UniProtKB/TrEMBL annotation, chains A, B:
Bias (Low complexity): 1-13
Protein name per UniProt: LacI family transcriptional regulator
Region described as Disordered: 1-35
Keywords noted in UniProt: DNA-binding, Transcription, Transcription regulation
Length: 356, 356
DNA sequence: CTGTTAGCGCATTCAG
DNA sequence: CTGAATGCGCTAACAG
């Protein structure tokens, strides 16, 4: 960056400014400027700004306020951060935005933070482990007082870094091995079971499971829930009815392609995430397989797009708003921190499972 | 990302307790600690860290490096920002994430910035004008050297604020009235016309247009392109074939509901954004209207979900990667700034228009 | 009630 | 080649 100071050869300026500062732009006003204009000291300005810690007389206060207004003064956040050792920003570490689930998750967290007067800095690792470490440490170095982590691989070095610093960390949706800190999540296993039991209720007996390779995380738990439901109903079959795909709908669609052609006897699929369900429904559409009459589908996540897919997707809706609020509460308020905060989901039955 | 709270706009700040201070944690090491351990001065540590501006002997350098390593020292970003007057972060102002278009747009910008060693702070205004001002000024106060603005209403006060500060600003997709700064966008009008001409090529003569209320921005230009194509083909009809909706697919679906029941003679729709097209296709699905045989649909944006919708959506694909790269180039590099950078789109013909 | 002043951690200039 | 010293803008002791 560094705009060029073209008038570098200063003839004899009374105040030799740094050459990289644009000469036409006036320096931003500081507390000192405000103090001078208000005829007070910088301390008083600070007291007015922060409404404390010492009282200020009404007359002085209004003089300071006037000066602030006239100079269009705005405090420097970085100076404040340096001094107070904590930035006004909260960090939010996300694995990526390919899956709208994470986008959906971020919004209420932002809003809950905003309600408390904090901005959220989203750091997107784009599913890259190296980036995860880089952005998380950047956040810490920036001085954020807290970080919400919505997706991260197990990384001992990162865990150590977090441990060594004094940031508060809250995990959302999943806490990988090796980390400590409260987790805000849902009972993936139980609700997955609920979804599959619903499909069984529709009369299906051969129910496949579409998941990706994340056996330790929420997806793994959802796959377990699928097994639970089948076992309980005496329908247990082997893992040959598990379809493995990548995390995004495109790879789910590709994974479904081979599979849909050979699985004539399967009449329903539980998709471990809505994103995967979308990929499956896409492939079914291309192959001319009718949903739900030829193949029933049930998702998990409850992203808003599930309400407008063709056909509309039945799914387990996560309480995004509650999650955001709880995360913010853990980040900002002094609260007992039981390790796991489990929030309630809500099933929504739409067309894709055969309910409509 | 980042939503600004009301407190972001207020000058003063809440003097909250700081529950996150953990007294048991040792203070983070500073340059002074490193210098002491390496047996040098802080200046030398700085020289090593920044590889200049003065040379350092190989032996001293390695001693410093060793000390940094042993202490697990990491420089404080806020101190650096305060000192250098510029943060390491780039700001990205987004109107919201309801429409995946903006999510799609943000990713390549992030990546292009990351390639240059910068992280991006996403500020999400959530389509709220007050938030726009709040978050943008928060970004400026934070000391970011540049801001990419992907969505913003016309706001004289904000324009003045930007003008008064020395941030570089680049507009993406749209530059509202009253602002100055380079714009990176596409030729909305011409490509919209292309899309409609494609529909005409399929034999359609009554082609509707689905848009939202943004007549000055890109959507307005796309509606104009729709008119252009019809006029040129001698098919001009009045604005009664314009369907007005909100920005998201849910409201597009609602807007389409009334309309689809009466549209008997209309056989094709040009949707000004993919998001609107998704809403339309959803409603068509619910009403049992077959796409494309009963109603052809063409979108605009080229979000990745268009490739997996049911049916797959024909659309004008914006060059997201090029846009991101160009934005970063304008933000970081010294470059001539012609006002408008127009990038090329690419039409993709899928099932929804009748091509497959 | 208000003014003075010492740092926060870092980068950089000026002496050595 | 290196070290001491000076702020960046702000907050909060510590004096009045």
């Amino acid at each position: 960056m560094a705009a060029a100071g073209c008038a570098a050869s200063s003839i004899g300026s009374d105040r030799a400014e740094e050459p990289w500062v644009r000469p036409d732009k006036p320096r931003r006003p500081t507390v000192a400027d405000v103090a001078q204009r208000a005829g007070t000291s910088t301390a008083v300005v600070s007291y007015v700004l922060n409404d404390g810690p010492r009282p200020v007389s009404e007359s002085t206060r209004s003089r300071v306020l006037a000066a602030i207004d006239e100079l269009a003064y705005r405090p420097s956040r970085s100076a404040r951060t340096l001094r107070s050792r904590h930035s006004q920003f909260i960090g939010l570490v996300m694995p990526g935005t390919i899956d709208p689930y994470y986008v959906e998750l971020s919004l209420p967290i932002e809003q809950a933070a905003a309600r408390r007067g904090h901005l959220v800095m989203i750091a997107n690792s784009d599913f890259d482990p190296a980036q995860e470490v880089a952005i998380t440490s950047a956040l810490i170095d920036e001085g954020v007082p807290g970080i919400a982590i919505a997706g991260l691989g197990a990384s001992p070095s990162l865990a150590r870094l977090i441990e060594a610093s004094d940031v508060r960390v809250v995990f959302v949706h999943h806490r990988p091995e090796g980390y400590t800190g409260p987790l805000v999540a849902v009972d993936d296993r139980r609700w997955a079971r609920h979804a599959v039991e619903h499909l069984i209720g529709h009369g299906h007996t051969r129910i496949a499971c579409l998941g990706h390779h994340d056996d330790d995380g929420p997806v793994g738990a959802r796959v377990s829930g699928w097994r639970d439901a089948l076992s309980a109903a005496g329908l247990a079959h082997g893992d040959e009815l598990i379809i493995r795909s990548g995390v995004d709908r495109l790879s789910a669609s590709a994974a479904a392609e081979h599979w849909l052609k050979e699985r004539a006897d399967v009449t329903a699929v539980f998709a471990a995430t809505d994103e995967l369900a979308f990929g499956l429904m896409h492939r079914a559409g291309v192959l001319g397989i009718a949903i739900p009459s030829e193949l029933a589908v049930f998702g998990f996540d409850g992203v808003s797009a599930a309400a407008t897919s063709v056909p509309e997707l039945s799914t387990i809706v996560e309480p995004f708003a509650d999650i955001g609020e709880r995360v913010a509460a853990l980040l900002f308020e002094e609260r007992d921190d039981p390790k796991d905060h489990q929030l309630e989901c809500r099933p929504v039955y739409r067309a894709s499972c055969g309910c409509r």
